[in-house]
Amino acid sequence: MPATRPLHLAVDIGGPPHYEARHYTALAQLAERGTLDFVTLGDSFARPGLDALAVLARVAPATERIGLVPAVTTTHTEPFHVSSAVATLDWVSRGRAGWSLEVSTTEAEAALFGRRPAAPAADLWHEAREVADVAARLWDSWEDGAEIRDEPTGRFIDRDKLHYVDFVGSTFSVRGPAIVPRPPQGHPVTVIDATAPEPRAAAVRHADVALVRAGDPAAARALREELRDRARAHGRDPERLRVLVQLPVALHTTADAVALAGLIGDWYEQGAAEGFQLRPAEPERDLALLVDGTVPVLQHRGLMRRFYPGATLREHLGLSRAANQYAQAGSPS
Amino acid sequence: MTKQMHLAAHFPGVNNTTVWADPRSRSQIDFSSFVHLARAAERGRFDFFFLAEGLRLREHKGRIHDLDVVGRPESLTVLGALAAVTEHLGLAATVNATFNEPYELARRFASLDHLSGGRAAWNVVTSFDAFTGENFRRGGYLDRADRYTRAAEFVATARELWDSWTPEGTPCPFAHQGQHFSISGEFTVPRSPQGYPVVIQAGDSGEGREFAASTADIVFTRHGTLEAGREFYADVKSRLAAYGRRPEDLKIMPGVTVVLGDTDAEAQEKAADIRRRQISPQNAIVALEQIWGRDLSAYDPDGPLPDIDPDPDSELVKGRVKVGDPFTVAAKWRALSEAKGLSIRQTVIETSGRQSFIGTPASVAAQLTEFVAADAADGFILVPHLTPGGLDDFVDQVVPLLQERGAFRTEYSGPTLRSHLGLPTPVRKG
Ligand SMILES: Cc1cc2nc3c(=O)[nH]c(=O)nc-3n(C[C@H](O)[C@H](O)[C@H](O)COP(=O)(O)O)c2cc1C
After folding, report:
1. Mutate to test the pocket of ligand 1, among B127, B199, B323 (most ligand atoms within 8 A of CB)
2. Global confidence as pTM
3. What CATH number does residue A102 fall under?
4. Which contacts qualify for A192-201: CB closer than 8 Å, 24 or more apart?
């Protein structure tokens, strides 16, 4: 495990649904005080709760550094709208957006839309991969520097730097270009829970951050190796994939928080993971203890930074800005 | 008592009303620009902030139109973020009813209403063309005749969803069977602070007006002159009774432009200068091509109008609403150009239409008050030509005069957009 890289910590701020902004803003601000990389917020059409991307858009101006990663489902939604919304979350947060891809497998969810029957997870994840692909194309469909504001020719944009994506997938097609200019990070960070085989196949192709579950450090290390090997087999640089271990936590006392720091530190030093996505049982209670009890211990051990050296989520994760697939070689991307 | 007006701030659009070449012009995409205009609007106690939508970049002669501002962020996400930096201001998003589904969109608007404490509004538009459809799952397009039946059923379905939780906070199952949607299940969001987000309508056809009369809380119209405004106002208000609604249940707000000066003469000069900047030489040729439907790039913008006739079946322009019959417009332009000896660019500038209200702050305040008193409008959606500072002067110089006249609020009287508009919270249909 490269010790040069800091430990990455993310926290899920879901839990029982709340319907006003204050609850989520307070949790994200708390996580930011602990210099965590990002917060995640789950979303589903199948259970009560607000639209997660809307919640984190509301949180964005109330925070400055922390990454914001809502779950976004790809089954009954429009790929074009999804890509626009995630790009816009990146704009309003000035480069702190990600999205966690999920699918909707149930009959109940299909009935809410009445457009298509429920389908097996394998088909839906195949489609989710296509959505990840087309979203990246749409984000790239504006090259950086496309806006030129050239008064002598009267041109606002250089349209040679805008591209049709002409994507034809198995269940949808998109012409493009995007209506939103390329977001600050190039590509907002793609997160995929790689526990089940179908999303794992998506993660090795498209994820910047893959989430895994493991009972011990050896199992976690094996999973990480598998994901990196498979990413390499798809022509990707495995150094551009972060693997975080999901960890359910329930902290009742400072002693619990310190014990958690011990566990995180040990797993990390054994090379089991690059970091963790913590899933608190009760976010309000657990996050306070995490920030005031766990984080300081990890900082003291030199495993976690004490401040955010970067401004964007990609910078927190040590991932460079995404290259543009449409930019001509030699021209700036 | 003086009739109170309503005011809204329109973020500058992706057309040549927006002058991007002005040195004061800033980003059309950075969040800071949205914050600037929203804060100005809230300082001025405006009713709401308004974002337009286009789901496909405009094209001209088969290529992306590059002379005007291009690109904007997605409206609902921007408004969610603006809810964090404003307290009272209504937040209105234009969202298409053809290329969305009721369950998801009702949920997004209900979420915005909760997250903003009751300030969400939805401008229901009905673009249905195959050109835009190429970006969406449904592909193709909707028959023109179906655009408003779908929109009406869409809004009705959304309202069923918004009503589906009990006041005690329990979700109840819904089932909707209709021509366009057959859906059932449970909604994920409790009834929102406004009950229903405010509904705005912006189409001008007979069907559009009928849809507004039956369903909308606000009409956004292009009829911004006194005569046309009064006619439109009387027509739309007269349609309300058939739906058991009162005239005050639907607010009519034309999109208007304002130019201020220290003297009336200075304001007129500034207005003429802005119109010249809105029509660059390149934009003059494009404007001509949009009428003629032909490639006129060989023509000199400072020379005479073409003597060839328009091509009425032209496919030259995509992603833009067509206005008027090309032969009539071309004949009018030729007559004007000959009568006044105007070049192509001068003709386009001359026909581009004066700004709606021009003058000193006192004169503009008086004109706006009279316009509302004459039942030509219930208020205005102000469209600035500069991003993001284009309404600063209006807020600082005209709003206080409107307030002195008793024509505009000095403080918000409630927390929700409905309270600003004087609209009751809809009764839940259980
Ligand atoms: C003032 C005004 C503003 C409009 N703004 C938008 C817009 O932002 N996005 C859009 O897709 N359509 C917009 N429209 C188009 C209308 O919503 C509608 O789809 C179109 O006018 C066709 O309907 P109609 O036949 O009733 O006029 C606007 C129309 C008007 C009159």
Report:
1. B127
2. 0.97
3. 3.20.20.30
4. A192/A100, A192/A101, A193/A100, A193/A102, A193/A246, A194/A223, A194/A227, A195/A246, A196/A121, A198/A121, A198/A122, A198/A124, A198/A125, A199/A101, A199/A103, A199/A125, A199/A128, A200/A227, A201/A125, A201/A129
